[in-house]
Amino acid sequence: MATVPLISQRGNASQNVANVSAWLADAALQEISLIVFPEASLVGYGDTLALRRRELVTLAEPLDGRSIDAVANAVERTGVAAGVGFIERAPDGRLFNSYVICMPGGGRCCHRKLHMVEHPAIECGEQYTVIDTTWGVRIGILVGADNYLIENVRMTALMGATLLVAPHRTYGSDSNGDAALQRLSPGQRSGPHVAHGAVAAESASAAAWLRRSLIARASDNGMFVVFSNGSEKGNNQSGMIVDPDGRVLAEQCSSSSPMVSTEVDPSLIAGSVGQQCLTARRSDSNGPFVRSMPPRGNAFAQRSGTPSRGAIALSFAQVSRIRQT
Asked: What positions does the domain CN hydrolase occupy (predicted)?
């Protein structure tokens, strides 16, 4: 599998889709099965807070819209599965920051970002998302700041995910141009200001903190992690693939090729310490936790027609997050 921290243009979905298609063709030549692009890779990475709702609606598309259809067609041509981010317009008109994985054979799985505070018109998703594949891994999807919270990754792992797809975007920076983390709540955006030096220090360490955090989550849960980060400025792109023991198998930085890839050995999962710890969890202690998370309908869309060569059988499980008061 591979990660590509794609450089995307705001409001130019057709060009962004063309870039995705070109990378898929290149990935096919390298016999790559899955390629992961950043959060919002089809709409651009800039902060959406200043946009009006009608501007967001212009950028938004349904799950079966023109851009996702074009990506799905490229997946069919190349046989390479692809994960891309977009602003989703639901059938009832609601907007979501969503991420869809398109599979050869027509399968599409869509995850709606759980912690969405970038714009009041974009709603938060309510479900975790996992996908069964024939590759020997079960894919979980968490978008952007979803990955910051330990609980989100753990719940995805408890649902059986052994490969975490973690798309991200960096749309904030300090005066020095250093990347900043996304916000997890409106209060963090509008909170009291701190000294400039503290802001700079926090921003400068954000990318390093996120890298360490994802490595820790891979080790904690005995799962592979594929990270792909896009940036509005074009100088904070990054990508990383981590194995279930927390080893970085491949990593991209500004001085290297935009695409990095590695072979993934699913047999590493069962032998990892993280998976052994998950197996040793007491089932009786999970009862109240699990009972409070009833299953919900999923966001899976299966295309009609005869599956093409390389089609992958999929099943899905999505569970609502616990709401605490």
From this structure: 1-266
**Domain spans of the chain?**
2-317
Check whether domain 2-317 has CATH 1.10.1740.10, yes or no: no
Please report the beta strands in the chain, taking only residues with DSSP state E, as ranges in sequence order.
2-3, 34-36, 81-89, 95-102, 107-112, 122-123, 129-132, 138-141, 163-170, 224-231, 238-242, 248-252, 260-261, 300-302, 316-317
Q: Give residue 251's Cα distance to chain centre.
A: 17
Per-residue pLDDT of the chain (325 residues; tens, 9 = 90+): 999 998 888 888 999 999 999 999 999 999 999 999 999 999 988 777 778 889 899 999 999 999 999 999 999 999 999 999 999 999 999 999 999 999 999 999 999 999 988 889 999 999 999 999 989 899 999 999 999 999 999 999 999 999 999 999 987 665 556 677 888 876 665 333 333 333 434 444 788 899 999 999 999 999 999 999 988 766 678 899 999 999 999 998 755 678 999 999 999 999 999 999 998 887 666 555 554 444 444 444 443 333 444 444 455 555 555 554 4
